[in-house]
């Protein structure tokens, strides 16, 4: 009746994790609609649609309340139209489930947004743990010249809601190249959420 405890070795350079139970990859052609510069995205997808942008290795012991899902995210460095490579981003389907990310290698930022539209941006890199509190939409962005590798952990019953970002025309801020660093700029297609949409998020909490 007891699950056995397990240990997992993580390669900080690749995100490979021993005894992972699942893996998925997101390639350029899977990520249409994420970047502001659609023509630049189309050109990149035409040339190299099969290129992996990020890959997730994970362990899902159970998706029941009280257990944890943990694993690693590996993200290549790159830009589309001056915007850095990023994950799709989501809020947890049970909106009040939190998450932690630990920097293994590379440099990036966690772009965070509340349903009401407030933004926070937190840098992540080696030996840095980032806490994503309940009710924050989150997306990671590789702002460096090397792969960004992070390990993560979140409650097993969290789930992911990706549509919350798409319905708002993207996140309120975009992370773009600025010299050899990054800057956050306003996303002109962003539409703040109406009260009913915000209420829908709070209705998922317990
Ligand atoms: O699910 P997304 O937004 O594509 O991003 C992937 C990241 O988010 C997670 O789903 C965790 O919330 C991880 O699998 C991974 O770190
Ligand atoms: Fe998450």
Automatic annotation (TrEMBL):
Catalytic activity: alpha-D-glucose 6-phosphate = beta-D-fructose 6-phosphate
Pathway: Carbohydrate degradation; glycolysis; D-glyceraldehyde 3-phosphate and glycerone phosphate from D-glucose: step 2/4
Keywords noted in UniProt: Gluconeogenesis, Glycolysis, Isomerase
InterPro entries linked to this entry: G6P_isomerase_prok (IPR010551), RmlC-like_jellyroll (IPR014710), RmlC_Cupin_sf (IPR011051)
Signal peptide range in chain numbering: none
Highest taxon listed in the record's lineage: Bacteria
A cellular component annotation (GO) from this entry: cytoplasm
Annotated Glucose-6-phosphate isomerase prokaryote domain residues: 26-181
EC number: 5.3.1.9
Gene Ontology biological process: gluconeogenesis; glycolytic process
Molecular function terms from GO: glucose-6-phosphate isomerase activity
Family the UniProt entry places it in: Belongs to the archaeal-type GPI family.
Name recorded for this polypeptide: glucose-6-phosphate isomerase
């Amino acid at each position: 009746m007891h699950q056995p405890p397990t240990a997992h070795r993580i390669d900080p350079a690749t995100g490979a994790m021993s005894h992972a139970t699942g893996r998925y990859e997101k390639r350029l052609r899977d990520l249409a609609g994420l970047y502001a510069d659609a023509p630049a995205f189309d050109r990149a997808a035409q040339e190299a649609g099969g290129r992996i942008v990020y890959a997730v290795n994970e362990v899902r012991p159970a998706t029941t309340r009280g257990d944890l899902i943990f694993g690693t995210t590996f993200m290549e460095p790159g830009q589309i139209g001056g915007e850095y490579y990023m994950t799709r981003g989501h809020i947890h389907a049970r909106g009040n489930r939190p998450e932690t990310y630990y920097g293994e290698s590379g440099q990036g930022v966690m772009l965070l947004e509340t349903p009401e539209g407030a933004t926070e941006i937190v840098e992540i890199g080696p030996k840095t743990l980032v806490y994503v509190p309940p009710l924050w939409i989150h997306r990671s962005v590789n702002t460096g010249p090397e792969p960004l590798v992070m390990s993560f952990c979140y409650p097993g019953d969290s789930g992911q809601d990706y549509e919350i970002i798409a319905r708002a025309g993207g996140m309120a801020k975009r992370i773009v190249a600025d010299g050899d660093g990054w800057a956050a700029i306003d996303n002109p297609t962003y539409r703040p959420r109406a009260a009913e949409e915000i209420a829908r998020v709070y209705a998922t909490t317990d």
